[in-house]
Amino acid sequence: MNLYVEITTGLRRPGGGEEFSKYYNLHVLSHPWIDQFSYSIRIYLESAIRNCDGF
Question: Keyword set for this entry (predicted)?
Answer without folding.
Answer: Iron
